[in-house]
Amino acid sequence: MSADIRDSRRRGLHNDGGLALRAAAARALVPVITGKGSLTNLDDHQVVARDRALFKALCYGACRTLPRLEALADKLLVKPFKARDADVQALLLIGIHQLLYMRIPSHAAVGETAGAARLLDKEWATRVINGCLRRLTREATALQAEVDHDPAVALLHPRWLLKALRQAWPDDWRTICEANNTPGPMTLRVNRRHGDREAYLDRLVSAGIDARLCPHAPDGVTLKTPCDVLALPGFEAGHVSVQDEAAQLSAVLLGPVLAPRPGARVLDACCAPGGKTSHLLELFDIDLHAVDSDAVRLARVEDALTRLGLAATLTHGDATQRDWWDGTPYDAILLDAPCSGSGVIRRHPDIKRLRRPSDIPKLAELQARLLDNLWPLLRPGGTLLYATCSVLPEENTEQLQAFLARTPDATPTTPHDVAWGRPAGAGRQLLPATDSHDGFFYARLVRRAS
C-alpha cells in the first residue's frame, strides 16, 4: 500500500466521493472567480460518472448565484482569504450554494464541503469553512436580507449589466434577470432528413422522455427534464441535435432565400460550433462554405457534420479578412457575429463575472468590421442574415442602424408578421424567456442590384 493511500485512509478520505466531488468543483470554479477562465470546457471526467450531474450543478449553480454567494462569504468571514487561497474561497462559495439552493442535507453540505479542504492540501481551512457554514444555517434569513439590499446581489447581476439592461429594456429588465438566473431548458432540433418532429416526439415518449413541441421553431422539441444526449433516440445516428429554439430560427429566416435555389452558394461566417451550419444543410440543397477563426472550435463543426452525415467546405480563416475567399460571390451569408452573450447568460452564467463593460464597444467594433468585410462578398440580390445572442442595442439595433447608414445598397427584409420576438429597428429581438428560448437578435438584409 502506498504512503499516499495510507495517508488518505488515515484522514478518512479513501473513496469519499462527496469530498472529492466538492474539491473538484472548487478547482473548476477558481478560474471564474479570479477572472482568468470560464466553464466553457469544463471537464466532468475528473469525477466518477455517478457524480457528474452534481458536479456540473455545483459549478454552474455557484456561477449563477455568485454575487450573493460572495456577499454572504464577506459577512461570514472574519477576514478574507489570501489570493493564493482562491480554491478555499471557491469551496466556501460552493458550500453556501448548497445550503441555499440545493436539496442537499445541511449536515452533508457543511461536513463534506469543509472536509474537502483537506483534498486541497489546506486542512487549516476545514475549521474556517465549517464555522462559516454552520453560522449560515442559523442566520440564513437575516444574512440574505442584509446583503440583498444591494440590487446587484438580489438580482445576481453585476451593476454595469443591470444598468445596461435597465436602459435598454426599462419594462423588461427584471424579467430578463429572472430568466438569466434560471437554467435554460434542453431543446432539440430534429433532423428532417430522418423524419419530422411529431414522429420524433413519439420516439421520445416510447423512450420514457417527456417533451413538447416548440411554438416557433418548426424542427424544435423541448424536453421537460434535461438528459444525457446518449439517452436520446437516434442521437448517435444523427437524427437529432441539441440547439435552442431561438438559434433554430436562422434557418427559418433564410428558408425563403434558399428553398427555391438548389445548389445556392452560402457562407456561414463565424460558424463554430456548427449548430446553424448543420441545420441549413439538413434543410436545403446548398453549397455551404463555413469559416471560423478558431481551429479548435472548427474541429467541433467537423465532428457535428460527421455525426449528422453532412458535408461542407470548412476553412480556418478570419472573417474580417478575405484571404480565404475564392472570389465567387455568395447567394446568402449567415453572420452569427461574436457578441457579449448577454442573451445566453442562463446557459453560460460565468459571463456575468467574466464580461466587462469595456468589452461591449470592442465587440461592436468587431461586428462592424465583419459586416463591412462580408457585405461585398454577397451577389447583387443576395441576402445576409445578421445574428447575435445578445440583448444589448449596441450590438443589435444600433449596429444595424449604423451599417445601413453607410451601406446604401442594403435593404432590411426582416419579417415583422411573425409570432416570435418583437420589432427592433431593422431586426427582431427575442428576450430570454424562462422555460423557453434564449435571447437572440436577427436582422435580414438584401443587397440591391445596382
Structural commentary:
With 450 residues, the chain is α/β, with parallel strands linked by helices. The chain has three domains: 3-154, Orthogonal Bundle (N-utilizing Substance Protein B Homolog, Chain A); 187-242, Sun protein, domain 3 (Alpha-Beta Plaits, 2-Layer Sandwich), CATH 3.30.70.1170; 245-447, Vaccinia Virus protein VP39 (Rossmann fold), CATH 3.40.50. The protein is built from 17 helices and 13 strands. The chain has helices at residues 3-10, 17-33, 52-64, 66-76, 86-101, 106-115, 125-147, 151-154, 159-168, 173-180, 197-206, 245-258, 275-283, 295-308, 351-354, 359-374, 397-406, and strands spanning 187-190, 211-213, 220-223, 240-242, 264-269, 286-292, 313-316, 330-336, 378-388, 410-412, 422-424, 427-430, 440-447. The strands form two sheets. Strands 5, 6, 7, 8, 9, 10, 11, 12 and 13 form a nine-stranded mixed β-sheet that branches. Helix 9 (159-168) crosses helix 10. It is globular and about 75 Å long. Residues 1-15 have low confidence and may be disordered.
